[in-house]
Amino acid sequence: MIGRRGRCVIVVCCALVVSACGIPLDEAPETIAIDELPIALQATTSTTSSTLPPQLTEDVAIYLVDPGDGEPRLVAVDRQIALVESGTELESLILEQLFAGPINEEQIDDNLTTLLIPSADDPLAVLSTSRPADGRIDIVLTEAPSVEGAARIAAFAQIVFTLTELDSIDEVGFLVRTEEGTDEFISVLTDTEEGDVSRPVGRDDFPGVRPLFLPN
User: Among the residues of the chain, which ranges form H helices?
Assistant: First the structure.
């Protein structure tokens, strides 16, 4: 059992501890600003907060295909892409969206599809892009689309119309990387009297599959 003298000693010790912390003794509680506390106590009461920058996005249009009755026609579909800080070019991000194909809602409700189909088991993909001249972009594919006839025309048109949505692009050159590692131009089937061409192509080369409505 602690006697009166013992209690007095405890009170005195507590007072010395509080005084040593640099906090003045008052008869009633008083609010103390954090910056007025000793440094040791500030470290335990301060909090830090960080705010992440908002995600930058870009609204774009990709072109899928309405197969119709054997007469495919392009349809513009809105996509929202996230702009990353890795230096990836906008056209590469757009092509990723295009080669991903339609989402379920688009397929079921609007019967949309894509004709960018590989001949092998690996997905058709873009290996690289380049800008050899103003208004032109060259893309290197893993292989050419495997479809034929009207479907082949629409497959190339999907890429051309999607990329030429960008103001800086008017025509697209198509190449394929060979087993030797070289990039060679491939024959593109157009919807004109020229038929197959081995030159960059634009929207005017695909009048028959041109969408009925173009995005603003």
Answer: 4-20, 39-45, 90-100, 104-110, 149-163
Structure tokens at 15: 């007072």
pLDDT (0 to 100) of residue 32: 63
- Is the distance from CB of 195 to CB of 208 less than 8 angstroms? no
Q: Is 93 helix (H, G, I), strand (E, B) or coil?
A: helix
Spatial contact of 114 and 64, defined as CB atoms under 8 Å apart: yes
Residue range 175-194: mean pLDDT, rounded: 94
**pLDDT the model gives residue 48:** 47
Q: Where are the beta strands (DSSP E) in the chain?
A: 57-66, 73-82, 126-133, 135-141, 169-177, 183-185, 188-189, 196-197
C-alpha–C-alpha distance, residues 95 and 154, integer Å: 16
Q: pLDDT for 20-33, tens place per residue?
A: 445 455 566 666 66
- Name the residue with tokens 């004109």: 192
Judged by DSSP in three states, 205 sits in helix
pTM for the full predicted model = 0.72
- Cα maximum dimension of the chain: 113
Q: Does residue 123 contact residue 158 with C-beta atoms inside 8 Å?
A: no
Phi-psi region of 181 (alpha: psi -120 to 50; beta: other; left: phi over 0): left
What is the mean pLDDT of the segment spanning 68-97?
Answer: 84
Reported as a pLDDT band with limits 50, 70 and 90, residue 54 is low
